[in-house]
Amino acid sequence: GTLAYTTGGTQATRRAAWVSREGLVTAVDSTWDPQGIIGSATLSPDGKAVAVALTREGRRDIWVKRLPAGPFSRLTFNDTSSGRPAWSADGRDVYYIADRSGSGVGPVYARRSDGTGNPRLLLRSDVDFGQVKASKDGRWLLLRSAPPPPASTDIFGLKAGDSTLVPLVASPATELYPALSPDGRWLAYSSDESGAFEVYVRPFPETAGAKWQVSTAGGSQPTWSSNGRELLYVNGKNDLISAQIPPGATFSVGAQRSLFSVAQFATVRGVPAYWLSPDDKRFLVLREGAAGQPGELIVAENWVQQLAGQGGK
């Protein structure tokens, strides 16, 4: 008989890039070489460093790179994989998910971004998490739960210095991408409660008091501008949308416009595909770099006879 099989190829290398509000893409570092596969990344609050989940030789850890041309410095040395990094509000810590099962979810740990000290478990809980995000003032952590199917994901809050999870948006629907406004008044998130993912906003922390829908043609990955007067999100066509948020005692949505398409950039479900710079002028994204090497097709004729012949030697 004839046996055909392929050898393992290599994956493409993801590289960080800056994108202007007009959609102009420029490289962050022309010498960018993580020597592995980047799954997700996040920009530091001061815009001067990036934390990435980087897989090298089958092991995924959190690494930090100073921008633009600093080296990649390894941050985690755990027995389990580490992923989905996020920065503390002051940039001193990097939060990450300790992936115990290989499914991308688990407990949340913190490690000093300069590599000093030991990893710290942030919360003892029976609940696994798939995303963590700090409020701008550092008083709250937003966490997205990741229960086993068919249960849905919900959004919780954890106040600094506390150990009790506060349910913020918990329903039979799937809630993703929590984002708190800079003044701490409004919680944006994405939910499929209508049958399709849309972006909603609720008052914070008393989230049950009201709800507003921001997107109308699909919406996910909400992000606030530094002054809270703009809410960005990705619509159902993968366009990055800018929605103006007028100041006032209650929440309202002003004019909305499309900036550029994010379809060309790398995404990981449950993690934003873009990160806004502190000056609100550009976005950090990941894009596929050099194409990976395809596997080689091997065709072996009369492989049964060959195998039998080898066994008789």
Overall body shape? globular
Total helical elements: 1
Q: Show unreliable segments.
A: 4-10, 291-298, 306-313
The percent range for helix content is under 10%
User: What would you say the CATH architecture is?
Assistant: 6 Propeller
Instruction: Count up the domains.
Output: 1
The tally of strands reads 26
Instruction: Give the N-terminus to C-terminus distance in angstroms.
Output: 21 Å
CATH level 1 class label: Mainly Beta
Question: What's the oligomerization state?
Answer: single chain
* CATH-defined topology: Neuraminidase
Average predicted local confidence, pLDDT: 89
The CATH homology group name: TolB, C-terminal domain
Nearest-angstrom radius of gyration? 22 Å
Sheet with most strands: strand arrangement: 3-2-25-24
Could you tell me the strand content as a percent range?
A: over 45%
Taking the sheet with the most strands, its summary is: 4 strands, antiparallel
Helix and strand composition category: mainly beta
Structural description of this entry:
There is one protein chain. By secondary structure, this protein is mostly beta strands. It has a single domain (2-227, 260-311), classed as Neuraminidase (6 Propeller), CATH 2.120.10. The chain has one helix spanning 303-311; strands spanning 2-6, 14-20, 25-27, 37-43, 49-56, 59-66, 72-74, 81-87, 93-99, 108-112, 120-121, 129-134, 140-145, 155-159, 166-169, 175-180, 186-191, 198-203, 212-213, 219-224, 230-235, 239-244, 256-261, 275-276, 282-288, 297-301. It has a four-stranded antiparallel β-sheet, with no helix packed on it.
